[in-house]
Amino acid sequence: MKFNLMDVKVGDELYDSGIRSDRRLQQSERVFIVEKVARKYITAAEPDNKYGMTVQIDRETGRLKADWNSHVFYRSKDDYIAQLRRRKICSALNSAFIGYGTNLFEGVPITDVLEAMRLLQISYTDDGVYVDKQMS
C-alpha cells in the first residue's frame, strides 16, 4: 500500500499534523485547501490565508516540494491516526522477526497485517503490542 495523493481534486482538504522531525519547529494542527492540481505537485493554502502563502506538495509522497525530509500531509485526521496505528503495529511485528529486515510489512495492506497478528497470536492494544502465547 503506497501512500499518495494522486486522486486529490481542487477544493479537497489536506491535514497537517504539525509534528516535525525537529521538535523546535513543531506547530499546531492545520487544514489546507487544495487550490491547484498539477501533474507532479499540489498547491494548497490555509482557509484563512491572508497573505497569499501557499505550499507545494508532492502528489506521490505527500511531502513538501522544498524539503526532502519534511512532514507529510494526510487526507484527514482519521487517516493520520490510522497511519500512526499501522506504524506502531508494523514496528512491533518487525521486532518479532529480528534479522529478516527492517520494514517487512511496508507495502502490505493493514488487513493482511492484522491477519498475520492473529495467526501469530499477537494481540494489540492502544498502549502497545503484547504476545498472548509464547512462540516456540
Give a brief outline of the structure.
With 136 residues, the chain is an alpha+beta fold. It has helices at 77-96, 110-119; strands at residues 13-16, 30-37, 41-45, 55-58, 73-74, 122-125, 128-131.
Notable features of this structure?
single chain, alpha+beta, 7 strands, about 140 residues
Question: Can you tell me the residue ranges where pLDDT is under 50 for at least 5 consecutive residues?
Answer: none
Rg of Cα set: 18 Å
Q: First CA to last CA: what distance? A: 31 Å
Q: Approximately how much beta-strand content do the residues carry?
A: 15-25%
Overall pLDDT level = 78
Main sheet overview: 5 strands, antiparallel
By helix and strand content, what is the structural category? Answer: alpha+beta
Provide a count of the helices. 2
Q: Which H/E pattern describes the elements?
A: EEEEEHHEE
DSSP strand count: 7
Q: Looking at the chains present, what oligomeric state does this protein adopt?
A: single chain
The strands making up the biggest β-sheet line up spatially as 4-3-2-1-5
Q: What best-fitting shape do the alpha-carbon axes yield?
A: elongated
Helix fraction bin: 10-25%
Question: Would you kindly provide a written description of the structure presented here, covering whatever features stand out?
Answer:
The protein is an alpha+beta fold and 136 residues long. The chain has two helices and seven strands. It has helices spanning 77-96, 110-119; strands spanning 13-16, 30-37, 41-45, 55-58, 73-74, 122-125, 128-131. The strands form two sheets. It has a five-stranded antiparallel beta sheet. A two-stranded antiparallel ribbon has the order 6-7. The radius of gyration is 18 Å and the shape is elongated. The two termini are 31 Å apart. The mean pLDDT is 78.
